[in-house]
Write a structure and sequence with these properties.
The protein is mostly helical and about 230 residues long. Helix content is about 75%, strand content about 0%. Helix 7 runs antiparallel to helix 8. The longest helix has 29 residues. It is globular and about 45 Å long.
């Protein structure tokens, strides 16, 4: 009986020890990891406060881009002006295509993303940054915002028109085009007259190369052509 009692005692002891160990595991599993959750709560609060403190996400991104342009060493002002003028020509050509019997709206959208227009955002922001150095920055950046907003709305109208949306009218498209062109004209008014004149000559030489001989350009204009 004694020999039978000993194994039974050992067995009961192990059972008790085992059950005690499981109880600890259960308590550990049920007890909340206070420190870990505390860190997660703080991290989540910081992220949430970051978004709550930014009322306009687009404005924040634009501000970051402006700071990038300020830090980035800009090219000479002369390097940006001809491309902007060429973009104006490009937008005017787009308007002419809308006057046809069957406008190709998808093609018009591609025109907004090709050639000089593809780099319009960078070019006009750089010109606005130069204008800010001469106390015309507020007006210049307003022109930038107006131009980009008009072109984005134009692109949206073209997209809807390509899907046969009757509300996307040619008249509304032309309104957006005129708004964008007016903003670009206003922005170019902040450029010094001599720089603007040279920019127009270079743009014209790209626009109609057969009418403007490259050899007739002065060395400074040739240098600007090489930059472009």
């Amino acid at each position: 009986m004694a020999s039978l009692g000993t194994p039974a005692h050992v067995s009961n002891g192990k059972a008790l020890q085992c059950s005690g160990w499981k109880a600890k595991r259960v308590r550990c599993a049920l007890s909340p990891p206070t420190r870990r959750e505390g860190r997660r709560t703080v991290s989540f609060s910081l992220v949430l406060s970051h978004f709550l403190l930014i009322p306009n996400r687009d404005a924040a991104q634009a501000s970051l881009f402006d700071k990038y342009v300020k830090r980035k060493k800009l090219d000479p002002l002369e390097a940006y002006v001809p491309a902007i003028i060429l973009t104006e020509f490009q937008i005017k050509d787009l308007e002419k295509t809308l006057e046809g019997d069957e406008p190709q709206f998808a093609l018009c959208r591609s025109l907004l993303r090709s050639g000089p227009a593809a780099s319009l955002r960078v070019n006009i922001r750089a010109v606005a940054q130069y204008a800010s150095d001469s106390d015309s920055g507020k007006t210049a950046f307003n022109d930038v915002d107006e131009c980009l907003r008009s072109l984005e709305e134009l692109d949206s109208l073209l997209l809807h028109a390509s899907r046969n949306d009757p509300e996307a009218s040619i008249k509304s498209m032309k309104t957006k085009i005129n708004s964008a062109l007016n903003a670009l004209d206003s922005l170019l008014q902040t450029v010094p007259s001599d720089v603007l004149s040279k920019g127009k000559v270079i743009a014209d030489s790209y626009r109609e190369p057969e009418d403007v001989e490259t050899e007739s350009l002065d060395p400074e204009l040739k240098q600007l052509e090489s930059i472009l």
